[in-house]
Amino acid sequence: MKRNALMIGLFVLIALALGAVAITLLGGNRLFEQRTRAVVYFTNSVKGLYIGAPVTFRGVPIGQVDTIGIELDPNTLVTRVPVQLFITSKLLQMNGGSDTMDLRDLVQRGLRARLAQQSMVTGQALIDLDFDPKTPLALVGEPGSKSVEIPVVKGAFDDLVAQITELPLKDTVGDLRRTLAELQRTSAAAQSVMKQAGEDWRQASLAAQAIMKNTDRTLQSVGHQANATLLSVQNLSDTTRGLVATTQPDIARTLASTRDAARSIEVGMQSFAEVTAPGGAPREDLESTLRDLSQTARSLRQVAELLENQPNALIFGRR
């Protein structure tokens, strides 16, 4: 019996030792860390925030969410969500010093909290701390609380959600539906027009093909006629060339005779010009001869008149 009791006691001690070692290994030095308790009051939705969510300062983890509650005013039905935080005090130290800075003093100097998205895929949220001295210090918790209240400021995501909330989504959805219906009607009309246009293009293509066939036949006929015409022109050219080659000697002789005749005419004209030149001896002789011829003609006319009046004048003489 004593031996069994000893074994049971030894087993319990070993189990307790292993539990202590496990707690030490799993918790590390956090079991002995000094933590500061803080509370943040949210008036909007904290969707995505969960117990154990990280608390960061400019992205550096300094704590975690401990509890999430709901406080409701029965008179005004105003609801707020208190979120209890645990912040590791040793992380909030003076620059290069060992003394930790009081969290209340940090709040007075502009420490603020905002709800931020931890992951856009999962939708999880976290609480991020940062300094924003320009925002007023508005505390909504009860004074004298053991937890340090950190005022809440709106983040860029909250402004975006507020803007989306203020949008007339119902009217926008109605306009979108009407626009989609109009687009469907327009698409149907466009499809009808495209179908008719395709039919017109098909008819035009068939007509163009028929025109091309007729044009090909016409061009072939014109080509045959052009070939025949070219052959005729070639034959005519050959005939003309042969005729010119045959008549070329006769043409040459005719041109030589014409040239000689022109030369003779030129000589004659020069002689005539010399004869008819004023003051020249040939012209004076010609004029004298012409005067003699004129007198002779006059005498002959007189004789003719005499014979006409006195036919017997040749026998009996002039009376």
Can you walk me through this structure?
The structure is a single chain. Strand 4 and strand 5 form a beta hairpin. Helix content is 57%, strand content 15%. It is built from six helices and eight strands; from the N terminus they run αβββββαβββαααα. It starts with a helix and ends with a helix. Strands 1, 2, 3, 4, 5, 6, 7 and 8 form an eight-stranded mixed beta sheet that branches. The model is unreliable at 28-32 (pLDDT under 50).
How would you describe this structure in keywords?
319 residues; alpha+beta; 57% helix; eight-stranded mixed beta sheet; 6 helices; 15% strand
Chain-wise SSE layout:
Layout: H1 2-27, E1 35-42, E2 54-57, E3 60-68, E4 71-72, E5 79-88, H2 103-108, E6 111-117, E7 125-131, E8 148-149, H3 156-166, H4 169-275, H5 281-309, H6 313-316
